[in-house]
Structures are given as structure tokens and as C-alpha cells.
Task: structure prediction
Amino acid sequence: MDSRAKNEITVQGIAASQGIAYGQIFVYLQSDVEVPSYQVEPEKRIDEVARFDRALVVTRQQISKIKNEVEKNIGPEEAAIFDAHLMVLEDEALIGETIREFEATGCNIETCFQKVSSRYVQAFSEIDDEYLRERAGDLRDVAQRVLQNLLGQAENALNRLVDQRIIVGRDISPSESATLDRSAALALVMDSGSRTSHAVIVARSMKIPSVVGVRNLTQRVRNGDWAIVDGYDGLVILNPSESTLFRYGKIQERKRSFEARLLEANRQPATTQDGVTVPLLANIEKAEEVAKVKSFSADGVGLFRTEYLFLSAARMPNEQEQFLAYKAVVEAMAPAPVIIRTLDLGGDKPMAGKSDLFPKETNPFMGFRAIRFCLEHTDIFKEQLRAILRASAFGRAKIMYPMISGNEELARANAVLAECRAELKAKGVPFDEKLEVGTMIEIPSAAATADLLAQECAFFSIGTNDLIQYMLAIDRVNDRIAHLYEPTHPAILRTLRNVVAEARKRKIPVSVCGEMAGDPVYAPLLLGLGIDSLSMSPAWLPSVKYLIREMTMADARKLADEALAMGSAKEIYAKCDAFYRARVRMD
Result:
């Protein structure tokens, strides 16, 4: 029976890569490698370690080949994704723990490596920060390849698709997505994943529509089923009717026209129709992203996450290494501002091989992390602060502290910074004497004491992801309750309004650097509440800029006033969505 004759079913996921595709489904169910377990005879243990070394070499060659092909066919930024894979193979902690496990147990090396790598994958899977959580996928991808090479198994790849297909899988690794035949892969749909997963980044670069977070779709579809994938609204429509096919044909034409208008708007300033210009900045985590920031015409970097420097290496980067990384971004962006967030490690963001610094915790989300870690390990904190200060001599750097809970923590952090300033001055090392220092507002206690914090810093940046999570007691990575994560909850809006009011009294600017900032549905509401600037992933800049140019600030303020008077998060969202749709013309 032709599957197109079945009832039409619409499944909501997360829009990850824009575009619309129609075709038949290929269900890709990647199974974990089956690893036999046995004891290795003492006289053969040297050979067993040598076998492990050979598998690492072969894996490194495979990944290097993929990286070179991606760089040639897609681009250097996408190829840089695989630097993290290569670093995994150089991770002394991972390899060393595997050898120690082998020496202690005598089990075959595959079993030892699987046990150790699984522990690392689990640790990174539990990280709250979406960007850092994706490193679990890198680890899993590399571990799978090493095990396949140890066992002499063929690669489980997707590059042999015969016909054009929509690929539906539980998860798709970065290396698998990189080897896709672009002429055969119509779209990617994943049960799990996020907008920032490396597989999605590769798909986006190849202009392959993608939808993620469609829970258990792999169990509901079969090979050959027909579907539409809407990478704009995050929809998968199974067995689409003729009327739906016709409607989507028209939608696709309008979307292409709209994308052209987005690119045109991106070359213009983010100025509302009543003459208010809004600074739009970018969130980055490494120096290589500066080119993308500039290509999207960002007004600066509103959030430079520094954790990548620490998580992409097996050891703590020293002051000089950090200085060079920060200097590269600050110098390249000058005279635009670069806000560098100090280290947000600890608790739910463990660093490989540093269990002495990051002990296991029962509740890491509320635990020993970020500024709490830095204030206890002032040697590590001071190295970073000195590196940022030194980099400030080459442009317009700013420092921002994460997870500040109150005025005492802010005062302690500023005291350490003052020591670093004095040390550099005593040595005659130049830095920006007027360097601005700000704080993240992402803990309810910080929001409640914004009046006190505003007296001790030059700016606020609201991290809406954590603020919403902590205020509503919602773990947004918990599938069972993620639907309760509501950015338009009245408590969130009132909190944002109060933070802005206290900042106004001290005449300091307020930015938002969480996911709300990059969503054009929420952006007008934030601006209406008095937020001065928005910082987001570079790819979302055109959409937000386009909407800003289509609205007035007076209308945004009216939207905020009406939203603050409402009591339902869903009603507020509907109002924001209506505001957005009234100004975004798809014709």
C-alpha cells in the first residue's frame, strides 16, 4: 500500500537547519559496537597495548581524511569541528586511564576503552551548557571508531545512499554527517540533538534541512514512508496530503524570497522604523569563529565562552596560551567590543583528568562551579584574568563573571582582579586601564539584588537559559519536564523588568545573551522591556535584524506592557508570535 494514502501526521521538533524537503524516509539505526570481554594472557599484554596504539593511529588517519575532505568541499570552519575529535585521540587522561584499567584488570583493551570512554561520554552528556554538552557526541563518535578499528569492523557510514532520502535516526555523528552525499540526503531528522550539535552545523553548511528533538520518531516510521521536513518551523509531516504538498510548494517559494530579504537586511543597521538602533552581538567559543561573526555583520562579541580552551585540551592552558587566544579575538574584532566570560567550569562541566579539582557532586547544577570554583582556585583564576587584561591592550575587551549569586562574590572577584592589575602594572605590562567589568544575571538571587550588583559593575548580561531554569525549577534537558521551560512565564518577565529598572538607576547597560536573544519571536519583547542589546549565535543575526527593521520601538514597549499585564505564559507567547508574524512578510 502506498504510504502516501495513510493519514497525515504532524510531529513537532526543533528547527535546526532551514529548508524544506519532501521524499521517502530512510531509517538509520546505528547500533553500538558489540564488545567481547575476555582475559588477556600476561605474555600477550605488550601486544595488546600495541594493538590499541595501532587502532588510535588508524582512527587518527580516518578523521584527518574526513577533516581534509570537509575543508575542501564545505569550508575550513566546518573542518575545524574535527579538531576536537583529533584532540580526543591525544587526550592523555582518556588513553592513560584505559591503559591503567587494562593493567589493573587484564581485560581485553576493547572492554577497558569502552568502560573508560563511556564514563567520559556520560559526564559530558550531563552538562547543562548546550554547547559543551555537544562534546559528548564528539567523544562518542571517536570512541565508536576506535572500537570498530580494534574489532576490525567496517565503518557504519551513511555515504552509500543509492537514492534521495530523508534520513531519520536516533542520533547522527559529526563524521557521519560530514560524509553524506549531498545529492542523496534530502534532510536530516534526529530523535535527539540540538541546534548546536556538530552534525547539525555540518548539515546547515551543506544546506540540508534538519529537525532535531523529535522523540522516538525512529520507532514510528518505516523505510519508504513519505514525509515533508520543515526546517523553518521544526515540523515533520508524515504521509502529507495533496493539499499539504501544494501548500508547502507555495511556502517553499515564499521562504526562498524571504531568505533573500534577510540577507539584504543583514547588510543594513539594526534600526527600528522610529529610529532606535539596537546593538546586535555574537556568542562565540573560539577564535576561529570571528570570520563568521564578521560575515553576519555583528556589532561585537557579547559572549566569548572561554571553557572551550580548557575542555579541548587534556591540561589547563597556561596564561600565555590563554592570552594568545583572547588577543586573537580582541584584535580581530577591534574596535568592536569583546565581552570575555571568565571560566564557567566545575560541577556539571567537568574537565577530563581533573577529578581532584572537580569532585563528583550529587547536584552539580547547584554545586561547585563557575565563580565559586575560581574564587577557591585563585591561581587558575588569576592566570585567566591576567591573560584577559593583557589582551585588552589590543582592542576593546571587557570582563564578565558567570554565576554570581550576590554582592559579596562580586566584591571578592573584583578584589582578585585588582591584584592582577597591580601585578601587571608592577611589571610594566600594558593593559586597558579603563577595562569594563560586568556580571551575568543568571541566578535568582543575583536578579533580586540587582540594585546592589549595579553599584559594583559596568554592565549586566542576562543569561536567560539558566535564569529560567533556576527560577522555574526546570531541568531543560530532562525530556519529561522540558515542556515546562517557559521563557514567557510572568515571573521571568517581571524579573527582567526589575533587573532593567535597577540598571537604569545606575545608568549601566543590560544585554541578554541567552537563547531568547536569538529568537525573533522573543526579541521585540526583550527590547520592549528595556534590554539595550542582544547577543546570539551568529547565524540568528539576520532574522533578528530583519524583524527589528520591520518594527517600531514604541510597538515593542506596548507589547511588553501588555505582556506584563497577562498571567499566562502561553497567552504571552501567542501575543509575541502574533507580533512577529504581523511583521514578517513571506510573500
Summary: The CA atoms of residues 63 and 420 lie 41 Å apart. The first strand starts at residue 9 and ends at 12. The chain has 24 helices and 16 strands.
